Amino acid sequence: MFGIISQEKNKRRGLLATKSGEINTPFFMPDATRGLVKSLGKDDLESIGVGPMVVNTYHLYLEPGVDLIRKAGGINKFMNWPYSLLSDSGGYQVFSLIHKNPKLGKITSDKVVFRSPLNGTLHELTPEKSIQIQFDLDVDMMVALDDCPPNNYPKEKIKASVERTIKWAQRCKAEYEKQLAKRNIKDDRRPLIFGVIQGGEHLDLRKYCAEELIKIGWDGLGFGARHHDEKGNFMEDLLEFTANLIPQNYLRFALGVGTPQDIIRCINFGWDMFDCVIPTREGRHGRIFIRKGELSSVIASEAKQPLNNKKEIATSLTAPRNDNLFYETININNEKFKTDFTPVDKNCDCELCRSYSRAYLHHLFAVEEPLAMRLASIHNLKFYLDLMRSI
Ligand SMILES: [Zn+2]
User: Fold this and answer.
1) What is the largest CA-CA distance in the chain?
2) Taking the complete model, does pTM exceed 0.90, yes or no?
């Protein structure tokens, strides 16, 4: 279902077949958390070449509920999205909810119990239930339920979460096989399944977790937990180390990564799949990615930096965003754009940049017009997709 087409050191290009179609790797998935990309319709997404996207099991389970999505014929039909969809396990949201407010739920060795923040009703998430929900959503790719503690937990707590992640992964995989048989799903129609490597910032725990997960068998493995340290620096050594723990024939999913330069770094380490809210969330707040020229040429020079230059690159990555090579971000709300009648990004041909000036977009944000969010989201997503195509 996944084959590598070409490889240069750790960086690789491949082809992935899912039941909804083929995907070139590496690829970026916009987050359609609640079954939608905020303020964008299907035509908007197709016009900029969006393919695979991520939906969120936890949010869809709470609203509109899995029964309704099953009645609609699955999440693809409900959204009218003909391309691949990946659902996460729902664990990250439930764990974040409980870590932020322990009164809202409890994590035991067997399951997570939590209260819906929507209406206070009590719910239970087990590894089996997470897999059943994802089969009911009828996605192309699913993720096993893992235990994701904050990185700053003491090591023994992280170790306990790794043990739980491994046990839950075994239960998820067993339930996955059971559901395939029960639903009579043939091999060419089966959803792909991913495990998630936990272990915080501890290399020994990451290694142990990966080795135990590989014994279970997956289509791919993901990087769990945060990828920035407490100072906000991207932990590229940890991402490189973890990529090397994953077998060549597995897909490597860098969950939640990231900024454009983090994605480029991770691709150089051999990661294949990315998802992040940055392009759309930043866009809705008026922060716009601007190319500093043709993406393909500047990215080629960025990627060619020698590896012994790594520390220098790491330092430059922590510098303010506008110091990197191939793009800058502007805040269109800034007063200086009020009378700037130039195109938003002269190197972009999206709906926003073809039709409107910076001054007009500034005005749309100033009067809180929903069109502003739509146009900015279209532009930022196209920037990300063009970036992936250039790479
Ligand atoms: Zn544009």
Assistant:
1) 63
2) yes
**In the structure encoding, which two tokens stand for residue 386, read together?**
């063009």
Say what the pLDDT of residue 151 is: 83
**Cα–ligand 1 centroid distance for 382 (angstroms):** 7
Residues lining ligand 1 (ion), CB within 5 A?
345, 348, 350, 352-353, 379
Q: Which amino acid is at 286?
A: G
Q: Please state the separation of Cα 279 from the chain's center in Å.
A: 11
Spacing, Cα 306 to ligand 1 middle (Å): 32
Q: How confident is the model at residue 21 (pLDDT cuts 50, 70, 90)?
A: very high
What contacts 353, CB < 8 A, 6 or more positions away?
Answer: 343, 344, 345, 346, 379
pLDDT at 78: 98
Q: Residue 306: CB partners within 8 Å, gap ≥ 6?
A: none
Residue-wise pLDDT for 274-287, tens only, equals 999 999 999 999 99
Reading the block at residue 54, the tokens are: 């991520």
275 is an active site residue: yes
Classify residue 390 as exposed, middle or buried by CB count within 10 Å of its CB (0-12, 13-18, 19+): middle
Mean pLDDT, residues 278-302: 84
Instruction: Tell me the backbone φ, ψ of residue 282, rounded to 5 degrees.
Output: -60, -45
pLDDT in tens, 84-111: 999 999 888 898 889 888 999 999 999 9
Q: Per DSSP, which regions of the chain are E strands?
A: 2-8, 11-18, 21-25, 27-30, 53-55, 85-87, 105-107, 112-115, 122-125, 141-143, 192-197, 220-223, 251-254, 273-276, 287-291, 327-331
**Confidence label for 322 from pLDDT (cuts 50, 70 and 90):** very low
The catalytically annotated residue of 272, 275, 345, 386 is 275
* Beta-carbon count within 10 A of 362 CB: 22
